[in-house]
TrEMBL record:
The keyword Metal-binding applies. CDD domains: CBS_pair_Mg_transporter. This is Magnesium transporter MgtE. It is a multi-pass membrane protein. It comes from Micromonospora yangpuensis. SUPFAM superfamilies: CBS-domain pair, MgtE membrane domain-like, MgtE N-terminal domain-like. The chain crosses the membrane at residues 286-304, 316-340, 360-380, 386-410, 422-445.
């Protein structure tokens, strides 16, 4: 059944107040599908199907929701249902929700938790914003190195129910300092009397609780790990970064990069449930900034007004040159931002990137110059065509170089490279490209 049909069925059942039909619908779909459909509904409507779920299914669906949608669901629950739900959540999922919750909601959640769960949640919230510590799973089955495989398996059976994952098992010394990691597979398949110390991988990567979460998540992707041990400054085990949390971190970071590259801002929650006002508010500041930046282009045209008056045919090719330069710069900027995000570029690579992109720009400019020369010769004659061809070569080389350089310089200044968005870069290249065009025209046409 298609997603559109799924949504129409749930909406139709709610509109007809067919609660029996809603129950059948909920039984027919997995938690992630239900969560997606609830996120599309308004706050009042979403609460109805959620309250029809049994306790276990409700928790599974709730943990699939974004924090802003979780808050909407909680607002419609009675006290007992509210407390049962937040008590059953994993501590890292609960902390993730509370980071974005209003103070009143956070206080209500913390007040209703048991002492143990409140302590776990408070510990996670105490780490720096955006750090691994805030998203790690603090409940871990840690194996002392002195155990045998049989004893370790017994410990996993006893303590595993409270842990978020048991597939990755950290091994610690008596001071709880991390020795390495073993897996449930190794424990199960080994003879019962084999020491855990012989099964441990001591070269496994580890991350510190205060490290940026995005950096740790990308490390996890590079190492193909299901979980990474998280340690404090003294190498004591404090938790595990699990694959589901790492995927969410990377998705959130990539979403933010994409929106900023499009001269917009990220918004919380599902796109279909965000208000029109909120979407407009996320885009308006950038558009206003771009309008102000576009004044540069107007000023350039005013400065070279006499050149345009002398050869009015030059005006015909302004859109072509401006568009080409902006697109060439945007292509280079997008490549650089992506390469920075996945760790393929470092600050020391800046000279090599400048040389590489300058050559790419010259090649592209030469190719496009052939097209420009042909068009110019047919439309306005050889002299202006030569100006257009030469300008395309220089503008493409300049745009590609600037486009790749600006994100790298931004990172050196500790600014998000995605902030150097394609529209912002395009505006800059528009103005500088016109300067190049008119200077070439003055030189070739002796104006």
């Amino acid at each position: 059944m298609s997603a559109a049909t799924t949504e129409e069925n749930l909406r139709g059942l709610l509109d007809r107040h067919d609660l029996a039909g809603v129950r059948r619908w909920l039984d027919a779909y997995p938690p992630h599908v239900i969560a997606d459909e609830l996120a599309r509904l308004d706050r009042a409507s979403a609460g109805v199907p959620f309250r029809l779920l049994d306790k276990d299914r409700a928790l599974a669906v709730f943990e699939e929701l974004e924090p802003v949608d979780q808050q909407a669901i909680l607002a419609g629950l009675r006290d007992q249902a509210f407390h049962d739900l937040v008590e059953a959540m994993d501590p890292d999922d609960r902390a993730r929700m509370l980071r974005e919750a209003p103070a009143k909601v956070a206080q209500r959640v913390l007040a209703g938790l048991s002492a143990h769960e409140r302590e776990l949640t408070a510990t996670l919230l105490g780490y720096p914003a955006g750090s691994v510590g805030q998203i790690m799973a603090p409940e871990v089955v840690a194996l002392p190195g002195r155990l045998t495989a049989g004893q370790a398996l017994h410990l996993v059976r006893e303590a595993g129910a409270a842990a978020e994952t048991i597939y990755t098992l950290p091994v610690v010394d008596p001071g709880r300092c991390l020795v390495g990691v073993t897996g449930l597979r190794e424990i199960v398949l080994s003879p019962a009397d084999r020491p855990v110390a012989e099964l441990v991988d001591t070269d496994v990567p580890r991350v510190y609780a205060t490290e940026p979460a995005e950096q740790a998540a990308r490390l996890m992707r590079e190492t193909n790990a299901l979980a990474l041990p998280v340690v404090d400054s003294e190498d004591r085990l404090v938790g595990l970064l699990t694959i589901d949390d790492a995927v969410e971190v990377i998705e959130a970071a990539d979403t933010e990069d994409v929106t900023r590259q499009a001269a917009s801002g990220p918004w919380p929650g599902h796109y279909m449930s965000v208000s029109v006002w909120r979407l407009a508010r996320s885009r308006a500041p950038w558009l206003l900034l771009l309008i102000v930046a576009s004044v540069l282009t107007v000023n350039v045209l005013q400065v070279f007004e006499s050149t345009l008056e002398s050869v009015t045919a030059l005006a015909l090719f302004i859109p072509l040159l401006v568009g080409t330069g902006g697109n060439a710069g945007a292509q280079a900027a997008t490549s650089a931002v992506r390469a920075l995000a996945v760790g393929e570029l470092r600050g020391s690579d800046l000279p090599a990137v400048i040389w590489r992109e300058a050559r790419v720009g010259l090649l592209l400019g030469g190719l496009l110059a052939l097209v420009g020369l042909t068009l110019g010769t047919v439309l306005v004659g050889g002299d202006v065509a030569l100006v257009v061809g030469l300008s395309l070569v220089v503008i493409c080389a300049w745009a590609a170089t600037v486009g790749a350089t600006m994100p790298m310089l931004a990172k050196r200044l500790r600014i998000d490279p995605a902030v150097v968005s394609a529209p912002m870069l395009t505006t800059l290249v528009d103005a500088t490209g016109l300067i190049i065009y008119f200077l070439v025209a003055q030189a070739v046409l002796a104006l």
